[in-house]
Amino acid sequence: MISALTRFSFVVCLALIAAFITLYNWGPEYAIVVGVFLLSVPLVYSYINLARLGKYVQSDSIENMPLPSGFWEEVFFRLQRLVKTLKQRMRNIEQQHERFIEAFQASPNGILMLDESDQIEWCNSISERFFGLIFKRDVMQRINFLIRRPEFIQYLNKRNFDEPLLLERMGPDSSLSLMLQAFPFGNQRHLLLVQNVTDLQKADAMRRDFVANVSHEMRTPITVLMGFLETVQSLELEKNQREQYFDMMMSQAQRMKSLVEDLLTLANLEANSLPAATNQVNVETLMALLKNDAEALSHGNHSFTFEVLNKNNLLGDEREILSAFSNLVSNAIRYTPEAGAIHVKWIVNADGQGEFSVTDTGPGIASEHLSRLTERFYRIDRSRSRDTGGTGLGLAIVKHIANRHQAQLTIESTPGKGSTFKLRFPKERLSS
Ligand code: ADP
Fold first, then answer.
1. What pTM did the predictor assign?
2. Axis crossing angle, helix 198-234 with helix 239-271, rounded to the nearest 10
3. ∠ CA 148-198-111, rounded to 5°
């Protein structure tokens, strides 16, 4: 490449030579004109190209500028290449930035970036929902002005972020439990991560309730049993009196056994994989089994009708389906007073769903209890349930089995008249 100084010297020499030739042939006036003209040609050329460059710079389109020929061609070519590379680099950085933002937005956790004065530099939309923030409005606001909970302000002021902080009754309708922790990064900045732990908290509360309920249910028969044992041990009893005590002890032991069995059934249902939709369960055979058990349980105190209106088989786990059906039938027997009627029916309805129903003429259930009947240990009349050998887990087991077969449990009841419990299986769970 020829250097700028060489080019300049070349032009000056050319102008001087031309000026001397002209001086020699036409005189000094012409020599000056020719010399000045030759010196001004590169100036004009440069001026024109600078003006063009100015125009393309203003419209931010240097990359599209047509290249001139000569010295400026290379300059413009290099300038264009530089601008193109810089713009491409900027585009890559922008794309990367957008991808980071998209990833943070896709996170199920709230993410807030705080600067060294705890002002919000950025937050994702889930944290806007958690704390009622609006990023555009609240950007660069101090977070302790926006989240006013004392425990949060204390956490922030303490500057000890080793442990997370649990904030309860948060969110739009104060229904969320949020676990929050700050992590330092960069120059005294903090990343605030917020996790919605509402379901975990609920599951934890349910587990605590469940353990408390089981302990309570077990404690009563154990206390009674121990009372009887002490009496039998310490008192000289008549033979028939002792037998009476043993019978009572047996019934308490039986109660504990039923409870443990129901708990194991629930545990198994939770642990096992979903029942395959390929095992054929013959409903007619199940109904025959149910009828035998029901008559034995009722001791002739109730009148029964068992109807099988369609021959379709069910697809699922036979033991589970039998357990759900017999729970409903045994409830009807246990809660329906003597001389009551119990109607058990299997039908495929107009929508093609298989419907198993148990209707009784028992006491019925007030509407406020209906939605809670399938909760574990929920009973309307605790002593009636216990007297009839109930554990409070029967309908929870039925509901669980229904869910595992994509079936729906519905309860219709009129207090004083009776109840109908229905299990509705989808078409896909029936075979012809
Ligand atoms: P339990 O072992 O106490 O019977 P369930 O879960 O089977 O437990 O039933 C829950 C509650 O629902 C019962 O305690 C009872 O109050 C009520 N219930 C269930 N079936 C009937 C029915 N056929 N008629 C009246 N009440 C019923």
1. 0.69
2. 160
3. 55
Which segments of the chain have a pLDDT < 70?
1-2
DSSP 62: G
Decide: 69 and 50 in contact? Cβ < 8 Å: no
Contacts of 171 (CB under 8 A, 6+ apart): 129, 130, 178
Cα dist. 256→225, 250, 251, 386, 390 in Å? 10, 10, 9, 11, 11
- The rounded distance, in Å, linking the Cα atoms of 95 and 105 is 15
Distances (CA, A) of 342 to 210, 301, 334, 335: 32, 11, 11, 11
Residue 187 in 3-state DSSP? coil
Closest C-alpha to ligand 1, atom 21: 331
Neighbours of 108 (CB within 10 A): 7
Q: What is the pLDDT of residues 318-365, one digit of tens each?
A: 999 999 999 999 999 999 999 999 999 999 999 999 999 999 999 999
Backbone angles phi, psi at 182, to 5 degrees: -100, 140
Q: How far is the CA of 385 from the centre of ligand 1 (A)?
A: 7
* The pLDDT of residue 1: 54
pLDDT at 38: 87
d(CA 51, CA 55): 6
Ligand 1: residue of 360, 375, 377, 379 to mutate (most ligand atoms within 8 A of CB) is 379
Tell which residue, 111, 41, 99, has the closest CA to residue 70: 41
Residue 236 CA to residue 248 CA, distance in Å, equals 17
Q: Alpha helices, DSSP H only, in 27-149?
A: 28-58, 71-106, 125-131, 135-138, 143-146
Ligand 1 first shell, C-beta below 6 A:
331-332, 335, 360, 362-363, 365, 373, 378-381, 385, 390-396, 419
